[in-house]
Amino acid sequence: MVEMGSKLRRLRKAKHMTQEELGQVVGVSNVMISSYELSTRQPPYKVMIRLARFFGVSIDYLVGIDLSLIHISEPTRL
């Protein structure tokens, strides 16, 4: 499974952006973007939402959730 940091770095590089530029877009410092990419810190939900919207991906994609593996059954009646 690819870590969120690797995905974030790949998405940023695909847009030819620096960490500083991405930080300005989502409202954090370049040091924070670096720590997210190195997986030493996880972004708070608000930042994760901004990142997902900016890159046009889902939060599920960013955090590595494979929705095809999730089985949702009908609710059980009591």
Provide structural commentary:
The structure is a single chain. The protein is an all-alpha fold and 78 residues long. It contains 5 helices and no strands. Helix 2 packs across helix 3. The longest helix is centred in the N-terminal third of the chain and has 11 residues.
Indicate the mean pLDDT.
89
Percent range of helical residues: 55-70%
Number of strand elements: 0
Report strand %.
under 5%
Radius of gyration: 15 Å
Order of helices and strands: HHHHH
Q: pLDDT below 50 for ≥5 consecutive residues: which ranges?
A: none
Alpha carbon gap, first and last residue: 38 Å
Describe the largest sheet: none
3D shape: elongated
- Tell me the number of helical segments per DSSP (H or I, 4 or more residues long): 5
Structural class: mainly alpha
Question: In brief, what are we looking at here?
Answer:
It contains five helices and no strands.
Please specify the SSE layout and strand pairing.
Blueprint (H helix, E strand, L loop, with lengths): L3 H11 L4 H8 L3 H8 L7 H11 L3 H5 L15
Helix pairs in contact: 2-3
